[in-house]
Amino acid sequence: MFVTITAEVLVVGGGTGGTAAAIQAARRGAQTVLVSAGPWLGGMLTAAGVAAPDGNELVALRTGIWGAYLQALRQRQVGGLDWSWVSLFAYDPRVGAQIFADWVQALPNLRWLVGQVPLEVQRVGDRLASVRFPDYEIRADVILDGTELGDLLALGDVPHRWGWEWQAEFDEPSAPVAANELTERYPVQAPTWVAILQDYGEIAPAIAAPPTADPNCFTGAWDGYGGEPFLHYGRLSSDLFMLNWPQQGNDWGDRLDRLLTSEAARREWQQEARWHSQAFARYIQENLGSRYGLASAVFPDPASPGLALQAYYRESRRLRGLATVTERDILPRAGGQVAALPMNKQGEMSAIALGNYPNDHHYPGVEFPLAPKSMRWGGRWTGTPFAIPYEALIPATVDGLLACEKNISVSHIANGATRLQPIVMGIGQAAGMAAALCVEQGCQPRELSVRALQAALLTDPDAPAAIIPLLNLPPEHPQWVQWQCEYGDRPDTYPLDGNCPCDSNFSSEVAVGHFYTGYFSASEAGDYRLDLTDSSAPKRHWSLITARPEVARRLADFPNGKTLGVWAYPNAAGGWLLAEKLQLG
Questions:
Q1: How many Cα atoms sit within 13 Å of 508 on the Cβ side?
Q2: What is the pLDDT of residue 538?
Q3: What is the pTM of this model?
Q4: Which of 84, 300, 451, 462 is deepest in the core (most CB within 10 A)?
Q5: Within this chain, do residues 209 and 147 fall inside the same structural domain, yes or no?
Q6: Strands 160-161 and 318-319: what pairing?
Q7: pLDDT under 50: residue ranges of the chain
Q8: What single DSSP character describes residue 156?
């Protein structure tokens, strides 16, 4: 017998998007229920162990709940976030999980149910009305699919995609012309079961060989990097190391259709993925040093120390929505470094979330070329920005439902850029806000004014979220809302370089980190270097990077050979100083 609950907003899935959606809906005032399968909220960012996230690292893109999450991490993570060379943010996943739990528990109108998976979806005509779980049936005005694999799309008979589209369908430059060996072998991108290693400083507990282990498949994992730099790719605080490695590493893409065929087949795939990561960890222990072992207490599962609570799924069932994000929608405009702003059929600019990941696909053993979408910015490479339209969250033919995870209406190719954690968090925040507005107005998601949604996101009192990528406009800027609205009203004036003519006298620079002085130099390739004049410094020569627009602008104009003072966070793994404020010599 199950308990019946009635809510205004139901969010199914406690992953990155679902958690953000539930928090935003409840903060807006909607009576919200969040249902998760596991004990941790945050999905990719926590339970899946991807605690060195990619994308939206530039200060101007750190807005909304994503920006608030980074601020909370910086405040709570002992030793800071500057540990790995793959990301500007590396942290213990337990810290992230506690942040989300605290945020949820602070909302009296948000009820969180743990240990429940959806079993059945009830429809009333073309509207999703309720979801049944093992112990509950929950009815809601608006239901959000925040599951990792788009399970509500299947349970509710909502039209969706799985797999590749050929070039003729969307005219995507990187899409294959027809089916081939790659598309048959990998219908979607390979997931990873992340493992966390620990440097015990002495002989660590031996990692057992799993029942199915082929150590030869890891040969060459750190070729071109070296063993120690390879481990520092995902270094976290407290001598922890995240294993989420694509080169002869722990991606697992064997017979991925099992993720959809049955619950037993999915569990079979999951067990194999866990064993594969365990075997990779054992290979590292045997080849890089016995002091490295699986971390003993990171995840709350004593039966599997060091292995994440869930897989890191890079791709899901994908909604067939009112609009589909394709590769051309995320590529920069000709002669520029930002993608065109999305427009709906009513001629309105319809962006509700943003990202800047370069685009990246994982197929073990295969190099898959993609149209480039990267740029030099602040002394390092980063991805070119793009925006997600509201219509990509709305089913084409079904009411009462919004997508809020990797399950939005997106092509297989474009999913390589839209799947990243900060972007999904922004999508979730927008979906949660839309659901709450629909409750307030008594309308369906397709009837909601996108301009009203955009305004609510921009002016949210807790975590205002940008809708338009503007590289030189940090969220603290007093003209931030003005320029966001300007390009919402006049999208044809959106600048090719993503820089608005805002007041350049404002600076978001802050004197944090440590202070360094040295001789500055810049290469023709756009690399910056600081050679310290302090002979007592443990390291004299550093790369110099920044994520702040004012610092980036001043570094671009600073003369070679001159003395420069910098407040910065040092990152030994990356060999860089992350500059937060300059003192010109």
A1: 23
A2: 74
A3: 0.97
A4: 84
A5: no
A6: antiparallel
A7: none
A8: T
